[in-house]
């Protein structure tokens, strides 16, 4: 049976599923409830200088039938008194000594950092997470993403913290940067024990067309929020990969955050190098109970593949994430329709004809099952992505007899197309209909 327990930079937890610093970790009550439900750790809602919150605070992107495909907030760090939080932290640790309780912190001056680090250490925190991420409110006061976007400042504050901290320190990065490796390297240089990412993306989720203001509207006005939830997972995974492949960064453990909702999301994060996982939006949307499916799903995945601990497969996908120039230019797949599954909606035909390569034909006999014109198909996947029936269109590898070759190798062999009309260009000679074929028949 798979062992889900982790030791993350010295912070031990019975499993890698931690609540991210956010409303679900606002109080000892919620964290104890979460641990009872099966979460392995919790990063306390960020503690720091006093704040006042506004009402309302959240906005969302509801995509078709999916509510909160993306989620946004303009909330600040904890607005509860520090002493209440510390008292509750101590109590949580008494009930759950083997679970990870991490204090997320955000203050301004060196003196404030020294004081609050000692406060949370005395309260029994297992680790500290530095919040250099909030892209709203706190950054206007020179904290949060204002630090996360300035590697030199970030490094200095990490150094202050490392001078004082006696427990492991995780630096939580802001994704609102061009190159995530810049703050990542700064955190390494400052001496951080670990990294976590991502915090939220600076965003406007939509406009209220009556108020003429962004959501969430506060008395007729709005501001940019921090975007999170399932919509950000692809960008977060890419940033994780950037850190996990970087030779000067990847010796640090990384806690993966962003759109994690199921065990599959967790497995993807681990395969790209994360060794703990943090969840906010999914816990806010569905409650703490989702951790049961996450744990059992990940355990089954590990048992099926013979992994005893998550370290057996952490980062295992990284060697397969390469640069475009190293991909095999001669690998070929073609779309294949399963006529028994097809319901004749013709979405694939429309997508391919208007948005791809005119490689799907409609039947002439009035029936609705389309067919693939193989010689026109470039294997782009679009039809299989739009088809509403699972596995109805599959992409099948075709052996074209051509040897493996990459752009990089062709560059070295001096066989890349080099002029605008070069015969060696990929699309040269590929069928496209005549422009006039698009005219309505009567005008032709
Ligand atoms: C309402 C709300 C409040 C948040 N507050 C904090 C915070 O106080 N400190 C922090 O580091 N991150 C905060 N976050 C960011 C989350 O910890 C997390 O990094 C982000 O939501 C991405 O994870 P998710 O996609 O699972 O939501 C907050 C997020 C939300 C939605
Ligand atoms: S894979 Fe692309 S080119 Fe081929 S049939 Fe589908 S949409 Fe058309
Ligand atoms: S999209 Fe799928 S179900 Fe619809 S016609 Fe094409 S193959 Fe058939």
List keywords for this structure.
2 domains; binds iron/sulfur cluster; binds flavin mononucleotide; 444 residues; TIM Barrel; elongated; 20 strands; Alpha-Beta Plaits; 13 helices; single chain; alpha/beta
Topology of helices and strands:
Blueprint: E1 6-8, E2 11-13, E3 17-19, H1 28-37, E4 41-48, E5 58-63, E6 66-73, H2 82-95, E7 100-106, H3 110-122, E8 127-131, H4 145-148, H5 151-164, E9 169-172, H6 181-190, E10 194-197, E11 201-203, E12 207-208, E13 213-214, E14 225-228, H7 233-244, E15 254-257, H8 263-271, E16 274-279, H9 281-286, H10 290-305, E17 333-337, H11 347-355, E18 360-361, E19 371-372, H12 382-386, E20 393-397, H13 407-413
Parallel strand pairs: 3-4, 3-16, 4-7, 7-8, 8-9, 9-10, 10-15, 15-16
Antiparallel strand pairs: 1-2, 5-6, 6-14, 11-14, 12-13, 17-20, 18-19
Helix pairs in contact: 1-2, 3-5, 5-6, 8-10
The structure holds flavin mononucleotide and iron/sulfur cluster (2 copies).
């Amino acid at each position: 049976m798979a062992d889900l327990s982790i030791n993350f930079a010295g912070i031990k937890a019975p499993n890698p599923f931690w609540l991210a610093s956010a409303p679900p970790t606002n109080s000892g009550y919620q964290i104890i409830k979460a641990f009872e439900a099966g979460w392995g750790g919790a990063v306390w809602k960020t503690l720091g200088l006093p704040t006042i919150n506004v009402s309302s605070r959240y906005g969302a992107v509801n995509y078709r039938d999916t509510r909160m495909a993306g989620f946004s907030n303009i909330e600040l760090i904890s607005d509860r008194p520090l002493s209440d939080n510390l008292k509750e932290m101590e109590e949580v640790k008494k009930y759950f000594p083997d679970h990870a309780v991490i204090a997320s912190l955000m203050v301004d001056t060196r003196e404030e950092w020294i004081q609050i680090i000692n406060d949370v250490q005395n309260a029994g925190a297992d680790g500290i997470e530095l919040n250099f991420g909030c892209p709203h409110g706190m950054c206007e006061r020179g904290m949060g993403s204002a630090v996360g976007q300035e590697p030199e400042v970030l490094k200095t504050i990490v150094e202050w913290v490392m001078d004082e901290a006696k427990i492991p320190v995780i630096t939580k990065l802001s994704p609102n940067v061009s190159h995530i490796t810049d703050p990542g390297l700064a955190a390494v240089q400052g001496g951080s024990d670990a990294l976590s990412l991502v915090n939220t993306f600076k965003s406007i989720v939509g406009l209220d067309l009556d108020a003429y203001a962004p959501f969430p509207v506060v008395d007729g006005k709005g501001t940019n929020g921090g975007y999170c939830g399932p919509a950000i997972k692809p960008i977060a995974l890419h940033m994780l990969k950037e850190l996990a492949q970087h030779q000067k960064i990847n010796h640090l453990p990384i806690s993966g955050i962003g759109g994690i909702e199921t065990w599959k999301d967790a497995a993807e994060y681990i395969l790209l190098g994360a060794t703990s996982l943090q969840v906010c939006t999914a816990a806010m949307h569905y409650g703490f109970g989702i951790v049961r499916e996450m744990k059992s799903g990940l355990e089954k995945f590990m048992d099926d593949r013979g992994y005893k601990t998550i370290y057996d497969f952490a980062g295992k996908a990284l060697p397969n994430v390469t640069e475009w120039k190293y991909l095999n230019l001669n690998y070929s797949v073609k779309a294949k329709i399963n006529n028994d599954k097809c319901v004749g909606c013709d979405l694939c035909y429309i997508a391919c004809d208007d948005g791809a390569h005119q490689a799907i034909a409609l039947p002439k006999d009035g029936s609705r099952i389309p067919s693939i014109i193989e010689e026109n198909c470039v294997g782009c996947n679009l039809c299989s992505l739009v088809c509403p029936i699972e596995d109805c269109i599959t992409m099948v590898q075709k052996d074209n007899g051509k040897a493996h070759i990459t752009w990089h190798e062709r560059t070295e062999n001096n066989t890349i197309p080099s002029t605008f009309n070069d015969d060696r260009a990929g699309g040269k000679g590929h069928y496209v209909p005549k422009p006039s074929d698009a005219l309505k028949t009567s005008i032709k």
